Structure formats: C-alpha cells, structure tokens
Amino acid sequence: MAGERTLNDKSGRAYPDRDDLSRFFEPSRVAVIGSFKEGFFGGHVIVKSLLEAGFKGNIFPVNPAYEQVLGLKVYPSIKDVPAEVDLALIMINARSVMRVAQECSEKGIRALVVVSDGFAERDEDGARLQDELVGFARKRGIRIIGPNTAGVVNTANGFNPCPYEAGYYRIKSGPVAICAQTGMVNPQAFPYPMLSTGVSKICDFGNKCDLDECDLLEYLEQDPRTAVISLYLEGIRDGERFFELARRVTAQKPVLLLKSGRTAAGAKASASHTGSLAADDRIIEAVCSQTGVVRLENFRELFEMPKLFAFQPLPEGNRLGIMTFTGGVGVLAIDEAAKYGLRLTTLGARSSRVLDKIFPGLGTMPVDIGPAMAAVREAFDHYPDILGTAMGDGRVDALFNVLWANPSGSIIERYVEAYEAVRNRIRKPLATWIYGPNPATIKALGERLEGMGFPVYETPESAVKALGLAWRYRNMKESAQASTEQG
Predict the structure, then answer these.
(1) Domain ranges, ordered by start, for the chain
(2) Domain spanning 313-474: CATH superfamily
(3) Regions in the chain scoring below 70 on pLDDT
C-alpha cells in the first residue's frame, strides 16, 4: 500500500507517502468514533451530515454506549467493524486518542482526522500527548489531519463530515479549494450555499501535527477539480519545501494566501490557537513574490478573491478600462488600481467615435454613462453596444464595470443581454460592482451575472483589487518561471 511507504525530508523527519492523501477526501469506508448524543457538535452531527450530503460510502459509527444512530448500527470498538476502513474520524477525550489510534493501526487504518482538542494548542501536557501521537503515527505509516480540527470536505462525492451543525449539508461543487489553519472555513462557519464559485475541497489543518499546507498543495496540484487554491496560515512549518512547492504549483494554478501573525502580538496569539510558530512576515513576503503566491489582506478575501481567478482569464496587460455611472467611483477605482500596477487606459479612436455617436462625451475613459442615461431615456437600449465597445477595445486589458440597479428593474435585462454578448465574444477579465437602493434587486442581478461566470464584488475597491491581483499573479508567475529556466 502506497500510504505505508516511508520517506525522509531534508531534516531527517520520516513521514508516509505524501502522494496518497486520497483516503482523506475520497474514502469508501469511514469510521466515526465519538459520542452520538444529539446536539450541535459530535458524532451524531457527522453521521447526519454525511447522510444528508449524499455520501455513498459506508459509515461505521463506533461507541460502546450506543447501539444505533440515525438507522446505522453502532459498533462497540473499531476492532468490531466487519470491513476494512479507509479513514477514521476521532472525537474523544485527548488522553484517549492515543489508545484509539493504536486500535486503528491494528485495524489497518492509515488515515486519521483527529477532531479532538486539548493538544499542543492547550499546554505542555497537551504538546506531549501530540508528540506521542505523531511519533506513533510515523512508525506505523499513518497520516493525521489535526488534532484540533473541524475536518475536511470533498464536494465531488458528498463527503461532508462536518462535526458542527451547519443547518445545510450539500455544497455546490466548483474549482476553488479552501484550506486553512482554522475551522472558520468549514461549513458551520461560512454560508457556502451563497458562494457562487462553489468549492472542490475544504480542509482545516488544525494543529498540523502531521499533514500540513505543503502536503495539501502537493495533493491539490494534481487534483483536476481544483483550479484555484485559497490558503489561510498562521505559520509555515517547512519553509524550504513550501518555497519549492509554491513555485511549482503557481505555474499551473493560482495560490492565494492569507498569512496571520504579521505582528509580534499576532504571532503570539497563533501559538496559543494551534501551537503554530509564525515566520517573520518579511520572509513570507519575499517567498510570495518569488514564487507567484498572491497575498490576501483579510479573511473575507479567502472566499471573495478566488472568484475572478476561477472564471475569468488573466489580463494580458495592465491597461484598465472603467465604466461607471458616477465619476467619484471612477476616481476611487483609479487610486485602487495604482496599488497593483494597473493604469487607466485610453480608448482607441474607433471606440471613441462609436461611443460619442451614442452620446457626446461618452467616448472618453473612464466611460461615464451617467449623463447619457439621465439625459436620454432610450440610452439604456444602447447598453450592450457600450459595454461591448469598451470591452472589445484593443487598448483595454481588463474592465471594472459599475452597474446601477434601477429600483424598478427595467434596465436589468439590458445588463444581462450585454454580459451575455461579452461572454460569447470577448476573452478579457471583467469585474463588477452593483449599487442601488434595493438590496433584493442588487442581489438578484449579482446572482444572474455570477451564474454566467462574471464575478460581482461587494465594494468598488474589492472589484478593482481582484483585477489587480490577477495582473500581479500573471507577472509573478512569469518572473518565477523565467528564474527557474535560468537556474
């Protein structure tokens, strides 16, 4: 079995074969070890979540105090399960985890998700328990996610063993993998049904006693369902390995990183959260710039910024076009764009003539359509032509578009018509911000556009930033590739 093969990294640390992480995301037979008392957390919730999410594999609940849970037989011990088991999910007292891990090893189980807390994140006694568990696992060829984790999700097979009640169970499949050193990315903490991109995989590393960000990068590099990787980390355990992997992975797919612990106070807090050691932020910044990893600045961006990378092409250059109903937002967009190396472009002569013919003065950049729409009611009928002209101009590499959600909804169909035409004809990145007095109208229009693959952002700044990060990624990726070729 590949998972039993043992390798050594440059520090001499032994670990099982990194390539075989499929047991964590594609298990056929899963053991759930813990309490099955109904509540908002625990084994009962995991079993319910798996069943409701449509997981088709076998589920083996294990606890000597129960006979049945949600129609499934409960086994007194993992030894009593009448089948081979690919993955064990463990939620018991920290001091009992080692004993159960030994029983799992005797059963031939080589993958454990240890949800239990009370390890290195707690105190010195917990750290000793964790070290003991890790030492045992390495000797037996066992891989571990956790401890102190909310687990994993694979949307392709309905594998959603969330230990916390989320109120929903099925998650839309999509190209974005979200992996983090916190359970705040798991279903109980984030409304994934509202995420237009969908997700491929979710993973909370927990304390990273064994499996870490490098292992996941290596796995996701080969995952055909993942096109964008979004990471939240408090620390990086193997900097050299991360550097080499990041440079390799970003050559194929974008990696977006939110790194906490930038300050001394933040680094201290991360140690108490997951027992993590934070690296100097200047080192992280240098690693990202040399490997093509795109840095994020806040938690929301973990979910929001991947949208453009997932569905839009990268910009060919840094010439930014802006369409807006208000000059003030245009100025804000120009300021934000400059932070990422984007510059406001000018329209070509032909485009300017076409737009000026629709309304005098429309053919300048930023393209401010507010005066035209206010002066000529029929101007909205020309909206598809206006957007198509701006997007199709040879001097525009990317476009930031502002939409006014008319409270009556009378112009919504013109917007949709325009975006449909662009989608079928022009391959350039387009990011949108919608404003207006009716939140329901804004939400409905945003959902329609994102359903076509056009990301909509909550603020003008975030829309422009997404375009800027895409341009930054393209530059860093090309520089990293050139450096590799020269080396």
Answers:
(1) 2-307, 313-474
(2) Succinyl-CoA synthetase domains (3.40.50.261)
(3) 1-19, 261-279, 377, 483-487
- Per-residue confidence (pLDDT) for residue 9, from 0 to 100: 44
Buried b / exposed e over 342-364, threshold 16 CB at 10 Å, is: bebbebbeebbebbeebbeebbe
The answer to whether the CB of 399 falls within 8 A of the CB of 389 is no
pTM, 2 dp: 0.89
Both tokens of 150, joined, read 């909310």
> In sequence order, what DSSP letters do the residues of 260-279 get, joined into one string?
---SHHHHHHHHHHH---PP
Other CB atoms within 10 A of residue 276 CB: 24
Residue 1: Cβ within 10 Å count = 10
Adjacent-strand bridge partners of 164: 41
Instruction: Return the half-sphere exposure (C-beta side, CA atoms, 13 A cut-off) of residue 447.
Output: 9
Is 2-307's fold the same as 313-474's?
A: yes
Look up residue 186 and give its two tokens: 């798991």
The reply to whether CATH 3.40.50.261 applies to domain 2-307 is yes
141 half-sphere exposure, CB direction, 13 A CA radius: 15
Give 65's DSSP letter: T
Cross-strand partners of 119: none
Both structure tokens of 146: 């956790």
What are the pLDDT digits (tens) for 23-69? Answer: 999 999 999 999 999 999 999 999 999 999 999 999 999 999 999 99
CA-nearest of 31, 29, 27, 47 to 39 is 47
